Amino acid sequence: MATIPSFEALLLEIHQSLDLGPYSSKVKDKFANLGMRNKNHKDMAANVCGAIFNSLDMDAAACRDAVLGMSEWEGYHKAVELNTWTSNADQHQVVWHLLGYCYVPALARRIAFWNLDGAFDKGMPGGAFWFLPHVNITTGTMELPVPHVVDWLIDLLDCSIGKAGVGTGLPGDDNTDRDSIVRNLHNWKNASIPRVHSINGYFSDGAKLVFKGVFELAEDLADDAKFEAALAFIQFRNLSADDLRDQIPMTQPGRLEAIMDESATDEEKQLFVQALLTRYAKPGMAMIRQRLRVARMVQDGYIRLLKFLCPGVQATCTDPSQNKLLQLAGIFGTVYNLTVDAWKNSDTQDEEDILFESRLAPWDKADIFLSILPSIKNERHLPVADLLTRRFAKLADGDALEDLVALDMHTATTLIASKCRRLKEEHEENMRLHSLLERVRTASPWRALQGEASYAVVSHIANSTTPPAKTRLLAMQRLRELAATPAEMVGAIVLELAELLNCPHTNRPSDVRQQVEALLADAETSAGHTTWKAPLLQYRAKHLLAQNAFDDAAKLMRAALEACNDGNFGTLRGEIARDAFAIEVANLGLIPANHEKYHRNMLAYGMFQGQVTSLEDTAVWVSEYFWDDLYKPYPGMESVQPLAKKQAEAFIQEALPVIIEGNWDALKQWMKHHAKTLKQGTIREVRSNTVLMAWLKMQDEFARQLPILRAAVSSDLQGEISKVEKLVAHWRHAIHLLVEAWPKQVNMADFKGQTPLMMVADASDEQLTLAFLNAGADVNAQDYLGRTALHAAVTARSKNCVSMLLTHQADTSRVTYDEANTALHTAARMGYADIVALVIEHHAHLVAKENSFHQTPLELAKKIMIDLPGFRNMMATHHRRSIGSTQDFDQIIAMLTDTACDDQLGKKKNAS
């Protein structure tokens, strides 16, 4: 059993190979496996990426490119993960296939594209990728990245390691640790991996290196003089034509000889001069540090990966049948060179894509290079995920890693024949599947299924939602007959369990409970149980849920989610997280610290097809999903009702008639009767409303509908409108009585942290705002987004509510959590000039306060004015809010400018 590594896990591997500040194993595990709170996860992702970018000395443009590339790759990587099942493949096999079929080909393409405009290897010897381990064709020995960079550095210094004059002090400081540097360079040459602090210390910006082996020319020299200087340089360095062919991109036979005997054309001579200037240019300390860090990163990753995939194989092994990573280096080189060659020989992007793909071998195009085919435009992940799922299904734990490319000319024929044979078999399997789908639709399904002997083909029918349920059940029976291993037998049982437990309640057979128990017993006692541990735990949990064992079901659903760390099951992890979330919030409400993990897993594993909803809104959705879909008690079992239903009946069915009638004495008696169960706590439902919050939300909904009803109802029905108006008035009076009887409820928030004071401030309800303040409402409470009642009143453009809150000492330093907006930022953002003036009157110092984007309210208003129509449309579409006019924003900018100037003037006077 194995999983596809998360994108976060890949980032941590890069972070470690760059020798950056280590995280504890516990922190890394939580980050890689979605075990952190959302904010902590985002912060750590930003910190890890930032540390990687800084370590590689990437400038702002390079960072932007990297972020875009990583975002694109993360999406593709996740899409492959969500459509791949790893079956019995072990972790070595999964990582090996991902490297060969996805990671390395994609990385080669991306680095090649990145290198087109400015060569990443500029100045390095030609003929090999300096940042990759490779076999030296001449010596037959392994060359690792760090020694390769050290050789380049020593070559430019034009001395042996023992003579390297490297200093670590500032200019003019002669105190250098020469022996330590020489010793470390020797170690680095012998494949010892340098520590980053050593690289930074030895090659700091103030280091004094004497580069005697570089080639430099005055720009005003004549071409003939430049060429003579070039000839003198290669003579000084004692470089032959054969030596130079390994150093500069002039490898054609006789080309360098013609230059050296001066028979070449003037153009050739100047190309030669330029090539020498590039190869033997004096490097800056930043370039040396960057190349050593990159080399260190790759070499550390290479050694750790080799130890994982090929235990016991030495890093210097040059046999690709033992050192499998050399095959990956070969794949990288092929893809990189073909990408660059296609770019050089094409005029348009389409021509480039066609040329690149045409030069891929057919057997590799449908295999290891499937993930990078330009011709696959949409849903590029699906063919790769299907291919990987098929390959993993045929592997067993401990199987040897297959060769991805030919090791030599002798093995090429055998490998190509093997690839072609496998591709032919998979194509024939696809054809049989299409034929079988047609036959089960038009002829006898049983006979059609009996005529197919492939477990994989029949499993497609059993898994498909297209055939009717009877046909799928026949396919499952056929799978039992075809199962050749215990894991395949359990796989058929899992499909039967899904059919019984996930079908509509009315479609279940009368003995469904007994059937499910028997199937689970068979699966759980089978040797193939481990392969299907996660779905079996999920179905055992659903089995318990159908018997009203809510707590036991929740416990097993959590275990099922944990079991997803042992294997890759496509989107199943998201489905299990959804079910676990639903069970836990159904009667207990939302507890963010406990339930965020389910929301993260739902987000990461395909449960949000459209717009992603917040944790709080998702809690509402899964609660409804629980009662509408997930909870299906077995025949004969009592159908449990939501705990909130009885409470809701108490404050709606009992209290509502009294409120409509306006019988206040009866309402007081009702409150006294239910004080024990409703006074001190929230209703047992996901929104965690108190009676006060529930009544406020219902009253607010009635109040919002009144203007619509008045406009829509004809004159002869105005009496009905009067009844609704009377109901709203009665409801408001009931709220007053409730607050008098149960005053603590004014500070009880719902699941979004919203308090009653925020609700009435947002509704511009001055009367209730004052009543709640007098009852002791916390004026500075913040909701899940960090908004206070003052933010709500500002957004509602309720000048009187804003004034009341400010009078009651609202803390204007409270800001929203994500954007850090003050109430003044909010007023400026909404374009409410009167509110801006009121807030400035009370707290003028807020004009200098910056939000998380380093914007003062003035800067925020100016930015909005750049595209006011677009901002207005966004606010109306996404927030259902109207904002101020152009004149309002002009007035706001003028007020904020004047106040800022007055503030600066005051500071100068105080300073003087």
Write a compact overview of the structure shown.
With 912 residues, the protein is mostly helical. It contains 42 helices and two strands. The longest helix is centred in the middle third of the chain and has 34 residues, at 409-442.
Question: What can you tell me about this protein's structure?
Answer:
There is one protein chain. The protein has 912 residues and is mainly alpha-helical. Among the domains are: 483-630; 825-912, no CATH class. Helix content is 63%, strand content 0%. Strands 1-2 form a two-stranded antiparallel ribbon. Helix 22 (486-502) packs parallel to helix 24 (533-545). It starts with 6 loop residues before the first helix and ends with a helix. The model is unreliable at 165-176 (pLDDT under 50).
Characteristic terms for this protein:
two-stranded antiparallel sheet, 0% strand, globular, mainly alpha, 912 residues
How many individual helices?
42
Helices and strands: which structural class? mainly alpha
End-to-end distance: 74 Å
Which consecutive residue ranges, at least 5 long each, have pLDDT under 50?
165-176
Task: Give the strand tally.
Answer: 2
Major beta-sheet overview: 2 strands, antiparallel
* Mean pLDDT metric: 90
Strand content: under 5%
Give the strand order, joined by hyphens, for the main sheet.
1-2
- Based on Cα principal axes, name the global outline: globular
Rg calc: 36 Å
The helix content, as a percent range, equals 55-70%
